[in-house]
Amino acid sequence: MDLMSRSTIIRCVAILVTAFCAGTPSNAIAQINCSAWGANPNDDNPDDAYLQQCFNNAPAGSTVFLDPGSPGFLIDYTVTIPKNLTVTSSQAPTRATILAGHNLRDFVMEQLDINMNWTITYISFSGMNDTLGWRNFSDCNTYPNLGNLWFRGTGFTFAHNESKNAICGTGLQIAGNSYYVWDNYIAYNGTDAWNGGPWADGITALRCNGGSIHHNVFVDNTDIDLVVGGGPSCTVYNNTIWHGGKYSFAGLNLGNFGDSSPYDGKHYLSQFTGNTITNTVADRLGHGLSVGAHPWSVAVWISDTGSVSRNDIAGANVNLLIEGTTGNGTAGNVTGNTISNPSGNRDCGGAYNYLVNPNHATAGQYDSGYTGVIWDFPPGGCFPQ
Q1: Given its phi and psi angles, is residue 48 left (phi above 0), alpha (psi -120 to 50 degrees) or beta?
Q2: Would you kindly state where each structural domain of the chain is located, as residue ranges?
């Protein structure tokens, strides 16, 4: 029997690429640990070049393992997922950690091919906004991409991860088709308006065509915890959004983003249900659930709301707001939500359970019992009627 050379054995053991080893079926799934490429989560040296080399050399379809460690893998230059890979912790469910380095001027990680199908699980990403002096806030005025993560794709999965402490922008920006974003912890992204910003979303779903965002936990993000810009048959359900420390402009928002084109502002056949939005300290959450973007821009409209029902909202300054939908009254519904105990007066000079601008809420049906409002920007300001 022929024996493999010593160098081949070493390569197979060190990199754990089973498909590369002699005698292994060609369709075997490769498994690679990035420590073989020099990535080390237990020192203070940048790891982006090593991780990128590891990702680049991994065969498409393989699983790439990252070791947990302290402080984690440091990123000074954005790491890109170049092909269909599964990236996960080598000790799941213990998460590996990826941190923004001092010199990072872009996203920590990105993948921008709309056709790519990738998976990320059991990774904790941090923009290090919580560590005084680690990064420069003024960079947010110069560099447009200082959020944590920016991913496109079709059929991708992002699950069991954390995205925390983005310096500005967003904890996680996504756009794609038939994706699954679930069981993630999205927290403390940005600096809130009480402290002068710059703020950040938790998850910015620019495009959600047949996607599913569910069972995630959002804590004290500072722009909008979860905003969805458009797409048919998107399901957003059983998410928990909580505020009690940092202020956010809204918990859950149905909006309109150009990246959703041709579905921008069109949420038809989508379902937003079973989400729990809770604020426990006055003036820490502006809108609990808002449909439409007119408080921030009158230039965009929602033409189909989908079904927004059976959500539970409590303690926000305005628990439920509809301002910025247009249509013939049949494109969607915002009905059957539970709203209670509004608190604070930061956004509208008082606490309101349910505000609607009837002239800007014509896409679909909605419940009665509201207080009329005009809340457009520009010119700006909330004016209950």
Answers
A1: alpha
A2: 78-89+100-384
